[in-house]
Amino acid sequence: MVNAWYMNDNDSEDQRSERHLSPPQFVSLDELSDKTGVLYYAINADDYEAEGKLAKIRAERGYTYSDSLECCPQRLDNYLEKIKSFFTEHIHSDEEIRFVLNGSGYFDVRDNEDKWIRILVEKGDLLILPAGIYHRFTLDNNDYIKVIRLFVGEPVWTPINRPADTHPARVDYLANLTKVS
């Protein structure tokens, strides 16, 4: 089960630490969905093909392309530079979908009041970030994650750094989030 919490925004603290508020303020899956539009699924990472959940989600949401990525110092060229770029707050014009096969990391997302929520993703977690949500990613102190990335059609890898409040994906995201909240 995924864990999520409101985080402190202390930039002097290691980005890979948990960064809890004091006292910690956890966020339920329902709150996460209501306040951000983020969707979560638990999938058997060791036998996901036989289990069928991932195939069902792919079909329902129209994900036609996938690849995998191992993010660690030994497997990712320009590792430190990439990790730094992943941690820059941005949006995408498409959903960002990640299924964790192994390892762990953090997705940070902005809620409907522009506060950071940190989401710990681990083996078996599938996270769908809606197009237009401000977010960023970092590894935790284990420095390793292996994911399947899913896309509708060919992958689009264009991060649009904040501020991007007038971008059509952001405008649509805010309009849809308001309808849900």
From TrEMBL:
Q: Which GO terms describe its molecular function?
A: acireductone dioxygenase (Ni2+-requiring) activity; acireductone dioxygenase [iron(II)-requiring] activity; iron ion binding; nickel cation binding
> Which biological process terms from the Gene Ontology are attached to this UniProt entry?
L-methionine salvage from methylthioadenosine
Q: How cofactor binds (record note)? A: Binds either 1 Fe or Ni cation per monomer. Iron-binding promotes an acireductone dioxygenase reaction producing 2-keto-4-methylthiobutyrate, while nickel-binding promotes an acireductone dioxygenase reaction producing 3-(methylsulfanyl)propanoate.
* Required co-factors: Fe(2+); Ni(2+)
Q: Name one GO cellular component term.
A: cytoplasm
At the top of the EC hierarchy, this enzyme's class is oxidoreductase
Q: Name one Pfam family in it.
A: ARD
Q: Which InterPro entries match?
A: ARD, ARD_euk, RmlC-like_jellyroll, RmlC_Cupin_sf
Per UniProt, Ni(2+) binds at H90, H92, E96, H135
Q: Which residues does the record give as Fe(2+) binding sites? A: H90, H92, E96, H135
Bilayer topology: Peripheral membrane protein
- Which terms are listed as keywords in the entry? Amino-acid biosynthesis, Cytoplasm, Dioxygenase, Iron, Metal-binding, Methionine biosynthesis, Nickel, Nucleus, Oxidoreductase
- Please list the coiled coil stretches: none
Q: Does the keyword Lipid biosynthesis apply?
A: no
* Pathway(s): Amino-acid biosynthesis; L-methionine biosynthesis via salvage pathway; L-methionine from S-methyl-5-thio-alpha-D-ribose 1-phosphate: step 5/6
Q: What is its EC number?
A: 1.13.11.54, 1.13.11.53
Give the family per the record: Belongs to the acireductone dioxygenase (ARD) family.
User: How is this protein named in the record?
Assistant: Acireductone dioxygenase
User: Which species expresses this protein natively?
Assistant: Medioppia subpectinata
